[in-house]
Predict the 3D structure of the following.
Amino acid sequence: MSETQKFYAFNPSNNQKLEGEFSNTTKEALNDVVAQAVTAFDSYRKKDKNSIADFLEKIGEEILNLGDALLERCHLETALPMARLQGERGRTVGQLKLFADFVREGSWVDAKIETAQPERSPLPKSDIRQMLVPIGPVAVFGASNFPLAFSVAGGDTASALAAGCPVIFKGHPAHPGTSAMVATAFEKAIEKCGMPKGTFALVQGNTNEFGANLVQHSAIKAVGFTGSFAGGKALFDLANARPEPIPVFAEMGSTNPVFILPEILKQKGRVIAAGMAVSIAQGVGQFCTNPGLAFVEKSEATSVFSTTLAQKINETAAGTMLTAGISKNYNKNIENTLALENVSLLAKGQSSDLSNTAQATVFKVSMQTYTENAVLAEENFGPSQVLVEANTKAEVLEAARNLEGHLTATIHGTPADFENYKELFSILELKVGRILVNGFPTGVEVCHAMVHGGPYPSTTAPQTTSVGTLAIKRFVRPVCYQDYPSFLLPEALKDENPYSIWRLVDGVFTK
Ligand code: NAP
């Protein structure tokens, strides 16, 4: 890939080519960018915690300084409404600030100190200290559906920079203009905060080969990815096939099963159906937390629920999807599902003459049909759901036991339902990263306690999260310092605790 290949941005609502020409970063240029990141790592990792925190906040400020021009470009490239993009910008700046505060506080490095016991018998004990240190330059891939919050300045970038790692961000080809604008905010923040030049770089490309080259580069030490299962798995495999395998934190698709238990279905079936319709269709269903799968037990209440859900979905206007490809894929999957034996169409939203649209769609199937067709449990990225009717509680529990890993699961119930279905909670704890009660999975709060992750295939790293401050731990590794000269110890491990952080000293948490 030494020739520069050009590519362009398109407006998905009319297929018009947008202003601006983008180049696939060449392999030579990519090598230069990675070399700069390696050099930057040497000094960036040694920056004090307050400088890194200030830098993260400055990136946020510079994003805000881009003003509405950023949102307008983003709207043209994604067809996402301006109000949504305004909220997403707030979230992006908010998560940079959250990581800044987290780094400034400093205890996240998990400092542990075991003081020496020279007199211990039969063997003396050494002075042993441990903390987390940054892993090295990180390659980050963002998804098309969050052009700000899971893109150039998204959670992966924020958490890697917070950890002390330079970032090389591979821009998503669906919003290259937005990516380029956000990258200018990084340039300004780097200059104003005196950070090394290679601390952040945006590289653009629209071929799988390009992303593969980045992941296979020997100086890249970890990968953050948000996107499709196919993309995440391909990059995970490439990273594992390297002479030096590296961790890939791929957050991928999910169908986010929802369980609506019998008693609540009787009491609040209509209300839950209305909420479900909104959750399915919100943002044209283009959320990794979309409720793509729901389970109910057959009863009179089920038909009231289904009828209300059908009414609400039938009234839903079609929406433009993020790209022509995503829309084509969604509509093809809908056709394929309809063609399956014993799958009935419960509801379909309004049609539209606009380009690249999706109609909200709900299918209804028996538990037997669901069990016989594995494809019904798979994500169709967009506003669709498969509603599964079980005959018994045992069937519901069995379906839960057979789920693959998901980002979320939701249970709707009354206190009596919860008592009766205690086992469901216990099963789901092993299947997902977040369990919601009497809510809807769309919408992920960015906070310390959030888990946006889950067992494979929702991610390739179930021990962590891509949203919330725990995400920082993806880009670090523990180092043990044994009998170290005190002046060489990192600040976080010095006896006098200059950072005033919480540390585990001889088994006791102390400041
Ligand atoms: P995508 O097509 O997988 O793209 C993500 C990035 O990976 C792009 O930069 C893409 O660039 C690159 N890529 C994809 N396949 C690749 C391959 N085989 N080799 C090298 N690079 C590759 O994802 P998307 O369409 O933007 O996003 C939609 C999906 O993301 C949905 O499934 C959604 O559920 C999921 N999602 C998950 C989360 C989460 O947190 N778990 C959040 C948002 C979205 P190229 O196209 O240039 O190769």
Notes: The chain has two domains: 30-252+462-476, 258-437.
